[in-house]
Amino acid sequence: MFDKIQLPYAFDALEPYIDAETVETHYSKHLQKYVDNLNSLIKGYEQYTEGKSLDQLLANVNELPEEIRQGVIDQGGGVSNHNLYFALLSPNPKKAPEGKLLDEIHNTFGDLDTLKTEVSNAAIGQFGSGYGFLVKDKDGKLSVRNTLNQNSPAMNGVVPILTIDVWEHAYYLKYKNLRADYVKNIWNLIDWEKVEGLYLNYTI
Ligand SMILES: [Fe+2]
């Protein structure tokens, strides 16, 4: 059984950048549906899933029986991506990274603003529904990518450490068709302390 994270803030805590109705619907309805679908899908397949994290399943998705593989990509990715997305947002975020992550950002992007621009462009440029990501590889090198639907970068052997959900359900109530405005504003909510923690400590 997999579950959604406990939301570490109130539904209205991310206003004015993300409205309360969007957060409540996104977390309580959309994410919950992915959780329910995933758990019902993997019932009877415990031998493949027990003792593994969701990201471990996604990173080794070809080892799953074919009849549940695409479902785990879609529903499992939906849980993993949303759990990361909601965990990174905060009404009182640390505004910038420091230490080892900041050093690596300098090495890869030159500066933090360039990183933000590249992740934003990846998210805004994702045709249809998907995500923009900052990921690290096994050597701690950073890169930017986007994925379609609920595909997780974990399927490509890298570790997602920052994400922006650009499915319309993430922004449409407030921003309508203006995805770029939503992406610009979400940087006001991304907690770099969380990103640092994932960069330093999280492995799949
Ligand atoms: Fe979403």
UniProtKB/TrEMBL annotation:
<dbReference type="InterPro" id="IPR019831">
    <property type="entry name" value="Mn/Fe_SOD_N"/>
</dbReference>
<keyword id="KW-0560">Oxidoreductase</keyword>
<dbReference type="GO" id="GO:0005737">
    <property type="term" value="C:cytoplasm"/>
</dbReference>
<dbReference type="InterPro" id="IPR036314">
    <property type="entry name" value="SOD_C_sf"/>
</dbReference>
<comment type="function">
    <text>Destroys radicals which are normally produced within the cells and which are toxic to biological systems.</text>
</comment>
<protein>
    <recommendedName>
        <fullName>Superoxide dismutase</fullName>
        <ecNumber>1.15.1.1</ecNumber>
    </recommendedName>
</protein>
<feature type="binding site">
    <location>
        <position position="165"/>
    </location>
    <ligand>
        <name>Mn(2+)</name>
    </ligand>
</feature>
<feature type="binding site">
    <location>
        <position position="169"/>
    </location>
    <ligand>
        <name>Mn(2+)</name>
    </ligand>
</feature>
<feature type="domain" description="Manganese/iron superoxide dismutase C-terminal">
    <location>
        <begin position="97"/>
        <end position="196"/>
    </location>
</feature>
<dbReference type="Pfam" id="PF00081">
    <property type="entry name" value="Sod_Fe_N"/>
</dbReference>
<feature type="binding site">
    <location>
        <position position="82"/>
    </location>
    <ligand>
        <name>Mn(2+)</name>
    </ligand>
</feature>
<dbReference type="GO" id="GO:0046872">
    <property type="term" value="F:metal ion binding"/>
</dbReference>
<dbReference type="GO" id="GO:0004784">
    <property type="term" value="F:superoxide dismutase activity"/>
</dbReference>
<dbReference type="InterPro" id="IPR001189">
    <property type="entry name" value="Mn/Fe_SOD"/>
</dbReference>
<dbReference type="InterPro" id="IPR019832">
    <property type="entry name" value="Mn/Fe_SOD_C"/>
</dbReference>
<dbReference type="InterPro" id="IPR036324">
    <property type="entry name" value="Mn/Fe_SOD_N_sf"/>
</dbReference>
<keyword id="KW-0479">Metal-binding</keyword>
<feature type="domain" description="Manganese/iron superoxide dismutase N-terminal">
    <location>
        <begin position="5"/>
        <end position="90"/>
    </location>
</feature>
<dbReference type="InterPro" id="IPR019833">
    <property type="entry name" value="Mn/Fe_SOD_BS"/>
</dbReference>
<feature type="binding site">
    <location>
        <position position="26"/>
    </location>
    <ligand>
        <name>Mn(2+)</name>
    </ligand>
</feature>
<comment type="similarity">
    <text>Belongs to the iron/manganese superoxide dismutase family.</text>
</comment>
<dbReference type="Pfam" id="PF02777">
    <property type="entry name" value="Sod_Fe_C"/>
</dbReference>
